[in-house]
Design goal:
This protein has 307 residues and is α/β, with parallel strands linked by helices. The chain is 37% helix and 12% strand. Strands 2, 3, 4, 6, 7, 8 and 9 form a seven-stranded mixed β-sheet that branches. Helix 4 links the parallel strand 2 and strand 3. Helix 1 packs parallel to helix 3. It is globular, with a radius of gyration of 20 Å. The two termini are 33 Å apart.
């Protein structure tokens, strides 16, 4: 490719970054959005059918990015976001090497156990959004995240999901990965080995039966685990145990680190809750957390592309 063409592509992509920060400042009517496009059709990052890496024609790729960001800017206005969410980089060709965070080790543990971490090693200004439990099944959230093209990962507990498996089938079809958060959301270190196995491996079986895939990511309830937890998780197919660096609410962020700031690769936790739980809707939550993320110059990437 000639130097002039490369320069044109770089200029187009730079313009996108300016658009990403400046667009979407007008509040919109998010609750009225009715667009039903699935994540793959909408170009949701990480959704099935999305090719990794730039298109073979760089000028076409830049044009596609411009169209994508224009759609995101329009969606941001409809849903009342103050800024358009930034576009994450393409996933790495090789996933980063994961290790257990210092202080999160278990007695007698070794490198064969799934690593436990709160941040993914990367230099990119990206964070990962994860949503736990599965209690509040808000159709508005499915539309909102598809239209905004914001990837997220779900960690599900069956006792909250079993009354409507179909909701999460639709989420899966929109590009959301469904991960393990135990059957009954029990405090695992207080259980026997066999009871922990029923909670962890039993949820693996349920998710495989209902959604056709056995998860490789597991989050223990409350972030509590012991050596048995990790050994059992490994035995039934778990490869990694992502915890979280921040927790998001509609009215605040709670921070694990003393600097109370985001860092490249941080994992953000929130929950499938509604007004009865925290005085706001899932849309309110997303508006709040995306304001923090975008204001700080970060994009949301898909966790499973890095883990």
């Amino acid at each position: 490719m000639g130097g002039a063409r490369r320069g044109a592509v770089r200029a187009a992509m730079a313009a996108l970054l300016v658009t990403a920060v400046a667009s979407g400042c007008s509040p919109g009517s998010g609750g009225r959005a009715e667009h039903r496009a699935a994540g793959a059709a909408a170009g949701l990052p990480g959704a099935p059918g999305r090719a990794a890496g730039p298109a073979r024609d760089p000028s076409g790729y830049a044009e596609k990015l411009q169209r994508t960001q224009a759609a995101r800017a329009a969606a941001a206005r409809r849903w009342g976001l103050e800024q358009t969410p930034l576009v994450p980089p393409d996933p790495p060709a090789v996933k980063p090497h994961l290790t257990t965070r210092k202080g999160f080790e278990v007695k007698g543990g070794d490198d064969s156990l799934p690593p436990v971490f709160t941040t993914v090693p990367t230099e990119e200004r990206i964070v990962f959004l994860t949503i736990d439990d599965g209690d509040y099944k808000d159709p508005e959230l499915l539309r909102m995240m598809s239209e905004l093209q914001i990837p997220y990962s779900a960690f599900l507990s069956d006792y909250l999901v079993r009354n409507d498996y179909g909701y999460f089938k639709e989420a899966r079809d929109r590009g959301v990965t469904l991960n393990n958060h135990t059957v009954d959301h029990s405090y695992l270190p207080g259980l026997s080995y066999s009871d922990q196995k029923r909670q962890i491996c039993g949820q693996q079986d349920i998710l495989e039966k209902e959604y056709g895939q056995r998860p490789t990511l597991f989050r223990p309830p409350y972030g509590n685990y012991n050596g048995d937890t990790l050994r059992i998780a490994r035995s039934c197919g778990i490869k990694a145990v992502p915890l979280w660096a921040e927790e998001a609410f509609p009215d605040r962020m709670e921070w694990r680190e003393p600097d109370r700031d985001l860092h490249p690769g941080d994992i953000i936790l929130t929950h499938f809750h509604g007004a009865k739980d925290w005085g706001g809707t899932m849309a309110d939550l997303i508006r709040a957390v995306m304001k923090t993320i975008t204001d700080k110059g970060y994009a949301v990437a898909r966790l499973e592309d890095y883990v």
